[in-house]
Model the fold of this input.
Amino acid sequence: MARRKVEVRREEILAATEAEVTRRGFARTRVGDVAEALGVSTALIFYHFGTKERLFAEALEHAVERDLARLDDAAARASGPVDGVRRMLQLWSPQGDANGWTVWVDAWSESLREPEMRAMSRRLDVRWKEALADQIVRGNEAGLFRCGDPEGAAWRLSALLDGLAVQVMVHRNLTKKQLAAWVRGAAAHELGVDASLLA
Done:
């Protein structure tokens, strides 16, 4: 029973940290802000996470794990590689209020200075690329795609999505609809298919 309470408490702390970081950003969020939001002491948070850096790295993981679960679900529900790529690109793009993207973009900045955040960000980022590359390989094997470099295509599409997401989320000089159209066109070029196939 005590173990269950510890797990629940960690989950509550991570959820509260994610909410505070979404509102304030990593740089402006203090452990005290998280403690205050939960009505607990900062000592309790440090008991569970040790350092602010570990807390923030795990909060990023907490935020992204939901997206990764949706990624796994999208791959499992796909009717085939074309549908898999289509679903993944759609899922990867900023949607709704895009809280996940807000945390991601902020984490990139934090990762420049914090090794724990950098390691967590890198691990989660690579997981997305591997999942997309897997769909491309499957499409090649099924004769649906003509892509000579599935891994490179996944990395290039990822970089394009990341860069365009910054334009949508930070600079706000690009619409989500424009982002979707440009990514669809780039993906079609990479995969050797007509863009309408990915619509």
